[in-house]
Amino acid sequence: MNKDIMELLEAVSESLNRSRKVPFADDLYFVPKGEIIDIIAEIKSNFPREVSSAKQIVDNANEYVRKAKEDGARIIEAANARAERLVQNEEIVLLARQKEREIAERTRVRANEIMSKANQAANEIQHQANVYLENALRKAEEALATSVTEVRSARQSLRR
After folding, report:
1. Which of 46, 69, 120, 134 is deepest in the core (most CB within 10 A)?
2. Which residues of the chain have pLDDT under 70?
3. Furthest-apart CA pair in the chain: how many Å?
4. pLDDT at residue 2, rounded to an integer
5. Run of H or E residues at 23
6. Could you give the angle at the alpha carbon of 36 between the alpha carbons of 33 and 42, nearest 5°?
């Protein structure tokens, strides 16, 4: 016969439904004993196969759930690791930008100091050049004045 357990239980139910009532007894029925015993024997013989099949299905389902949980845990772990790397990268970028601003500010301050010192040095050189030139021109003027005086003196000597 080789029916599954549900089909066999249905056969028992049909057999009981077809049974005849015992006269003068409300809850007693004539049941075909041989047919019921045969069906029960077949249920008993199929039961280990059905249980084994059900157990295999449950085991497969449990294995699938276990693998799904492992995969889910790996996915979550990978996502957390990636999120951590992104956060660290973001922190690195923020730190780099902060460092860049600090370096730029120090560079600006240093450039202003250098420009200020250069301007001071240029002003000092300009002042010293002016002093030197003033002295040179004064000496030249004095020398010319002396020369003019000598030329006048020589001219007057010639006229006498």
Report:
1. 46
2. 1-2
3. 191
4. 61
5. none
6. 140
Can you say whether the dihedral through the CA atoms of 131, 137, 139, 141 is positive or negative?
Answer: negative
Strand partners, 20: 30
First vs last C-alpha separation in the chain: 171
SS3 14: helix
Q: Rounded to the nearest 5 degrees, what angle is found at the Cα of 13, between the Cα atoms of 11 and 19?
A: 105
Task: Provide the pLDDT for residue 15.
Answer: 87
35 C-beta neighbours (distance < 10 Å), count: 15
The domain of 51 spans 5-159
What's the total number of domains in the chain?
1
Can you tell me the distance from the alpha carbon of 38 to that of 30, in angstroms, rounded to the nearest whole number?
Answer: 16
